[in-house]
Amino acid sequence: MCFMKEPHQLHYEVNLRRFPRRLVKWMLAVLVLASVYAAWTFGPRALRHGRYLAAQRAMLRHTLAHDMLVFDMERFATELLKNEKLYRPWPELQSGRHAYAPAAFYYPFKLDPYLPTPRGIDGVLFMHRIENPAGDDRLVIAWISVRNMNTALTTDISISAAAYEPAKLKPSTTLTLVPGSKAQLFHTTYWPPLRLWAGQPDPHDPTHFTIPYSLAVGSEGNEWRRTIDGWLRGPDQDHPTEHIVLDARDGPLDFIHGL
Description:
The protein has 259 residues and is α+β, with helices and mostly antiparallel strands. The protein contains three helices and 13 strands; from the N terminus they run αβαββββββββββββα. The N and C termini lie far apart (127 Å).
């Protein structure tokens, strides 16, 4: 009896495991190189912008006690100037000019590199988040500028405020001044000197803030504390953009600058 052997079959199996492993290794290598390149190229820029946004957040949330003086001439100025982290003297003293009386200006030095400083700012009166009538967030800064303080005759003082659109997450964005938003009040001081306390946001009206001041002393030497109002308002027939309105609610400045 003859038996035929079945032909021997060779089975070749393709090793499919090595190829995916190699592919994963190449993908990981490319991912690591891309991460290193991105960190090297964009890391410092992103880090700087992150610090900028952190400082901006501090400015938007900046609050001071309602009884904190932010500007004073003569009476408490010398004592306030001992705190060099919060107050500075009349900036023009650095140019060699002298002041006939001491004056203390509140100025947050730690925010100095990020503060969108207008020309002529001597001290900060108010800095906080305020909403425009459309509900958009704005950084509103109010500041004081003083001129002619080197004479004992008169001192010209201006109180100004402006609105800034906050920077976005995109690294190229920064705080941007809203065109036409600036407002000013002017006063020429004789005696008693103008004194200002820290401005406060209105907890009941997100478009409103106040700055307390005094410019009169009673017969018993008591100060009469009064209020300057500030609003962030939308465009109107006189203003093409959103804008700040400053007005003294009461006290001497109301009679001088009432609108």
